[in-house]
Amino acid sequence: MSPMREPTVVGVPNFNAAEDAAALRGAMKGLGTDEQTIIDILTSRSNEQRQAISKAFTHEYGRDIIEDLKSELGGHFEDVIIALMMPPAEYLCRELNNCMEGLGTDEDVLVEILCTRTKPEIAEIVDTYEKLYNRPLAEHMCSETTGDFRRLLTLIVTSVRQGARDEEAGVDPARAADAAQQLYDAGEAKWGTDEEIFNKILAHESFAQLRLIFEEYKNLSGRTIEQAIKAEVGGELKEALSAIVECVENSAAWFATRLRAAMQGLGADDRTLIRIIVSRSEIDLGAIKTEYERLYDKTLESEVRGETSGDYKRALVALLGPA
C-alpha cells in the first residue's frame, strides 16, 4: 500500500494571480474586512498559487500581503490564513521553532512533524530551518531534548544528508530481512533492549523499505513491530517510534488520531488542529477524513464545527472540502 495521496486542496484551473491579488486588496481596503472573500480565495488556491498571489500583491501595491492580513484579521482565523500564506517548509519550521522556544519543549510537535515526513520533506525542512534561524535544526533540537529520543530525532534530520530514506530507490527484500533480524535481536531476543538499533533502522530507511521490514519482522517473531515497541521501549522514544511505524502503515489514520486528541477534553488544541489541517490539505487530508470517520463514527467536519466558531470555523471547514 503506497501512501494515500488524497488532497482536499488542489488549486484552481485558469488561475490569475493579479485578479486574486486585486480581490484580496479590495477585501481588506476601506472600512471593515470582507472575510468571506479571503476565505474563498485562499482556501481554494494551492500553496504555489498563494505564493504567486503574494508576489503579485507586492508588485501591484508595493505591500506585503501577510502584513496586511495580520493587520486586518485576528485570533485563530488569522493563524489559519497566515499558515496558508507561508511556503509549507517555512510554516513547519516556524512550528518547530515555536515548540522549542521558551520554557519546556513540546515533544509531541517534534514527533508530529519529524517522524511522519518522507526524506525529501525532511531535507527541505532542514535547509529552510537553517536559513530562517541561522542555526542547524539538529543543534537546536539537541539542546532541547535528551537521551534516546534526542538520538532518534538527530538521526532523522542528519541521515537525509546521506541519502537515506530515499523513496525513489525502490525496496530491497534481502536487506529488509536482515534489518528485521537485527530488530528482533535488539529487542525480543535479548534481556533489555538495544534502542540504538531501533533508532538507526527506523530513522534511516524509506517508508517503503520499512513497510517490508515490518512484514519480515512479523514473519520472524510472530508479533507486529508495534507490539514489540510497546513492550520493549518506553517514554518519548516509544511515542516517536510508534509514530514512524503507524505512518508507514497508515499515515492518514495516525493524523486522524492526532486530530481527535486535539479536539478532546476541555478546549481544543487549536495550534495542532490548524497545523494538521493546513499542512496535510495538499497531501492526504481527504484520506484523513475517511480514516477519522472509520475510527470514530463521526465526520471530521462535524467535530471541527463543534469545536470552532465564526470565520475560524468557516476557514477550516473550507479546507476540509466537500463531505
UniProtKB/TrEMBL annotation:
<dbReference type="GO" id="GO:0005634">
    <property type="term" value="C:nucleus"/>
</dbReference>
<keyword id="KW-0106">Calcium</keyword>
<dbReference type="Pfam" id="PF00191">
    <property type="entry name" value="Annexin"/>
</dbReference>
<dbReference type="GO" id="GO:0012506">
    <property type="term" value="C:vesicle membrane"/>
</dbReference>
<keyword id="KW-0041">Annexin</keyword>
<dbReference type="InterPro" id="IPR018502">
    <property type="entry name" value="Annexin_repeat"/>
</dbReference>
<protein>
    <recommendedName>
        <fullName>Annexin</fullName>
    </recommendedName>
</protein>
<keyword id="KW-0111">Calcium/phospholipid-binding</keyword>
<dbReference type="InterPro" id="IPR018252">
    <property type="entry name" value="Annexin_repeat_CS"/>
</dbReference>
<dbReference type="InterPro" id="IPR001464">
    <property type="entry name" value="Annexin"/>
</dbReference>
<keyword id="KW-0677">Repeat</keyword>
<dbReference type="GO" id="GO:0005544">
    <property type="term" value="F:calcium-dependent phospholipid binding"/>
</dbReference>
<dbReference type="GO" id="GO:0005886">
    <property type="term" value="C:plasma membrane"/>
</dbReference>
<dbReference type="GO" id="GO:0005509">
    <property type="term" value="F:calcium ion binding"/>
</dbReference>
<dbReference type="InterPro" id="IPR037104">
    <property type="entry name" value="Annexin_sf"/>
</dbReference>
<dbReference type="GO" id="GO:0005737">
    <property type="term" value="C:cytoplasm"/>
</dbReference>
<comment type="similarity">
    <text>Belongs to the annexin family.</text>
</comment>
<dbReference type="GO" id="GO:0001786">
    <property type="term" value="F:phosphatidylserine binding"/>
</dbReference>
